[in-house]
């Protein structure tokens, strides 16, 4: 009787082990984001009475780290806020340096105090052929809010876009000349991600 019980236990353990191994082979592990090619771009627009004398801003940074799980439809990534660079081709080098200093300083991003921009998806909805509506938590300037991102792509290459209100993340849009030149509260955020 004891031998029969031991044989049953052994068979059960073997079956369980085989089931776990089979289950593990069904899904691939999350893929690392290719940080050499993946980046985030911010577009900040001008407004105000004398906005014709100013220009829009294009700001870019590489994605520092992150993963994509295509089986579970999840993505998570981190951007080092201190790596954001003002591109503004219409501005002089000194103007770009001044804009960047203001952007990274305590009046805007306060990047020394809040060095990371972090996104983690929480839900993904199908929006057509190779398109999705991704909902997730974005932490910026020490504040976390959910965002909806329109995403397109496949096979480890994805691009997306959303718009953010600076004020929702505790950032006061820069204003000059008593408000005659200022940046809009709304910022367009684009990203392009490549998986390894």
Q: How would you describe what is shown here?
A:
The protein is of the alpha+beta class and 196 residues long. It has one domain (28-194): Lipid/polyisoprenoid-binding, YceI-like (Lipocalin, Beta Barrel), CATH 2.40.128. Helices cover 19% and strands 45% of the residues. The chain has two helices and twelve strands, in the order αββββββαββββββ. Strands 1, 2, 3, 4, 5, 6, 7, 8, 9, 10, 11 and 12 form a twelve-stranded antiparallel sheet that branches. A hairpin with a 4-residue loop joins strand 4 and strand 5 (74-80). The N and C termini lie far apart (55 Å).
List the helices and strands and how they pair.
Blueprint: H1 2-26, E1 31-32, E2 39-47, E3 57-62, E4 65-69, E5 74-80, E6 85-86, H2 93-104, E7 116-126, E8 131-140, E9 143-154, E10 157-165, E11 175-176, E12 181-194
């Amino acid at each position: 009787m004891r031998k029969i019980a031991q044989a049953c236990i052994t068979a059960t353990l073997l079956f369980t082990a085989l089931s776990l191994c089979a289950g593990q082979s069904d899904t691939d592990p999350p893929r690392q984001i290719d940080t050499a090619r993946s980046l985030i771009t911010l577009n900040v627009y001008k407004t105000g009475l004398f906005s014709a004398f100013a220009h829009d801003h294009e700001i870019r940074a590489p994605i520092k780290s992150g993963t994509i799980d295509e089986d579970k439809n999840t993505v998570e990534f981190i951007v080092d806020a201190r790596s954001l660079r003002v591109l503004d081709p219409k501005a002089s080098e000194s103007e770009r340096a001044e804009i960047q200093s203001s952007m990274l300083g305590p009046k805007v991003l306060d990047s020394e105090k809040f060095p990371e921009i972090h996104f983690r998806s929480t839900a993904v909805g199908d929006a057509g052929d190779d398109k999705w509506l991704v909902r997730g938590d974005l932490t910026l300037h020490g504040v976390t809010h959910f965002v909806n991102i329109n995403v397109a792509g496949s096979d480890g290459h994805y691009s997306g876009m959303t718009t953010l209100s600076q004020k929702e993340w505790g950032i006061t849009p820069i204003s000059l000349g008593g408000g005659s030149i200022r940046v809009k509260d709304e910022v367009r955020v684009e990203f392009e991600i490549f998986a390894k």
